[in-house]
Write a structure and sequence with these properties.
3-stranded antiparallel sheet, about 15% strand
């Protein structure tokens, strides 16, 4: 636990298990801590405290959230980098994708795991997604909804594959947050549908029907690959899964099966599955890596899309960021 020994409680990213020395990644802005990493263990730490009876894990995450609540930006956004010593943000970059994704995901999912009992956590979550909608969510000229990448009041018209989990997140928000009025519930559901559709477009507008790592929104080139590689990521499939369960629209199963066929055609090898280096190549080169999340998430969500809803039902379980089901507290 040495990474948490900071004045703010904001943890460092890395620890030497022998010397106990801590530090952040050199490539991170100002060598600061990363927003997604502040949230990505909160569900697990709460679960550890519940299992062991030791409150130290819960106290660590409570201190982080308490600091962030008290130091929110005037625009409501949480920036991607934060200094663990003084608690100030390092730069003004914000997104719902890489560097931030699981922070927002776990605000909602920790609240769900705690059986909707933590009102402060829910308020923090709803305020944060309202800010994202106001400052980071855009519609393209072709009416595709997407989350761009915010930096100092400018939004780059680029969406990463990692941000595609937001379709599922906003769908889950629409069906699980009873405090929402009908207008907001419908708004979040429509955003979920729009985001998932946009991410699907990034798949079917490629030669392989697999999605690029990032895609842009320029006139006549919307949802087209910028970073062309695909590393077996699950986020688009994840949103298909949530939207299938929420809407029962058969198209989500059709889209999922199209992805299955593409995986079999372009990623399957003699000994497993591999990422590919260019989704726009009709004969893409493989990267010779099967990522751990491919089995934990991509294949699991595909299996669940074609299973009955009583297999890991939403009223009894919440999925962590790697698709492991946690039973909701009684």
């Amino acid at each position: 636990m040495p990474v948490f020994n900071t004045p703010t409680g904001i943890p460092y990213a890395l620890v030497n298990p022998i010397s106990k020395a801590v530090h952040n990644y050199n490539w991170a802005a100002g060598s600061c801590s990363i927003l997604s990493e502040l949230g990505t263990f909160s569900l697990e730490f709460q679960y550890l405290s519940d299992l062991t009876g030791n409150k130290i894990y819960q106290e660590k995450i409570d201190k982080i959230y308490d600091h962030l609540r008290k130091n929110k930006n005037s625009n409501g956004l949480y920036y991607n980098y934060i200094n663990p010593n003084n608690g100030r943000y390092c730069g003004s970059q914000a997104s719902i994708g890489g560097l931030a994704d699981s922070f927002y995901e776990y605000l909602l999912k920790l609240w769900l795991y705690k059986n909707k009992s933590d009102k402060e956590l829910l308020e923090m979550y709803l305020d944060s997604i309202d800010a994202l909608k106001s400052h980071v969510y855009l519609k393209s000229s072709g009416n595709l909804g997407y989350f761009g990448e915010y930096s100092g009041n400018f939004v780059n018209k680029k969406m990463g594959h990692l941000a595609c989990f937001a379709g599922g997140l906003f769908g889950l928000t629409a069906i699980k947050v009873d405090e929402l009025n009908e207008e907001k519930r419908n708004m979040y559901k429509e955003m979920a549908i729009d985001i998932t559709n946009t991410c699907h477009e990034s798949y079917i507008r490629s030669a392989t029907h697999l999605g690029p790592e990032a895609f842009g929104f320029e006139p006549n080139r919307e949802a087209m690959a910028l970073d062309k590689y695909y590393i077996l990521r699950p986020e688009v499939i994840e949103s298909y899964f949530y939207l299938w369960r929420i809407t029962k629209d058969e198209k989500y199963r059709d889209w999922a099966w199209d992805a299955v066929e593409a995986l079999e055609k372009y990623c399957k090898t003699e000994n497993g599955y591999s990422g590919i280096k260019d989704v726009n190549s009709p004969n893409p080169q493989k990267d010779d890596v099967q990522q751990s999340f491919f089995i934990a998430e991509t294949l699991k969500y595909l299996y669940l899309i074609f299973s009955e809803d009583d297999l890991i039902p939403f009223d009894k379980f919440v999925f962590n960021t790697e698709a492991h089901p946690f039973r909701i507290k009684a």
